[in-house]
Amino acid sequence: MTSAILTPAAPATSSPTIAFRPPSVADGGDLWRIASDARTLDVNSSYAYLLWARDYARTSILAEVDGQPAGFVTGYTRPSAPQTLMVWQVAVDDGHRGRGIALRMLHELVDQVDDAATMETTITDDNTASIALFTRFAQQRGTIITREDLFGAEHFPEEHAPERLYRIRPLR
Ligand SMILES: CC(C)(COP(=O)(O)OP(=O)(O)OC[C@H]1O[C@@H](n2cnc3c(N)ncnc32)[C@H](O)[C@@H]1OP(=O)(O)O)[C@@H](O)C(=O)NCCC(=O)NCCS
């Protein structure tokens, strides 16, 4: 008589599939939901995100984890400086943070907007995650990031911390 030693089967592991694409109007509601859940962003109306997904899809990007919207970047090229990609908002759902998704979105966006030479964004001094993100992005591209004042507290009609302008260039 033979005896078999039974060992538990190893649990099946699969890493999530992360994909990037420009948003469509059908994604506008998800952009608004992700921005609202982030809680640190100035959330705009759902209408604004629908409009953005319609008119600024080329300069925006959506990240999907296993087919579900998990993060986005909204941006535009400045009318007076079309080679400048202004990043308006970046957000990643809480459960997917710390995996490099925001960094990858920025790189994918720069690939998408292949004529952009400069990236700009504004950040308040208390947003250490955002400052770390853009600093790391510039470092990974081997380029320079600078900071200057843009919108002071006195420019805002309500109480609002100053927004500093961060400029990253050359992008490539
Ligand atoms: C900022 C935010 C988009 C980062 O998303 P993320 O996918 O977790 O970021 P990544 O994993 O790509 O990290 C990118 C870099 O930023 C750093 N970073 C991210 N979150 C950080 C935090 N809370 N504190 C310090 N550094 C942080 C990472 O360490 C990483 O640098 P490293 O490669 O040197 O480690 C996310 O925290 C978020 O959605 N925050 C709320 C919305 C917001 O404030 N957006 C920015 C203003 S528009």
From TrEMBL:
Molecular function as annotated in GO: diaminobutyrate acetyltransferase activity
Pfam family, one: Acetyltransf_1
Catalytic EC class: transferase
EC number assigned by the record: 2.3.1.178
Pathway(s) the chain acts in: Amine and polyamine biosynthesis; ectoine biosynthesis; L-ectoine from L-aspartate 4-semialdehyde: step 2/3
UniProt-listed InterPro entries: Acyl_CoA_acyltransferase, Ectoine_EctA, GNAT_dom
Protein name in the entry: L-2,4-diaminobutyric acid acetyltransferase
Species of provenance: Luteipulveratus flavus
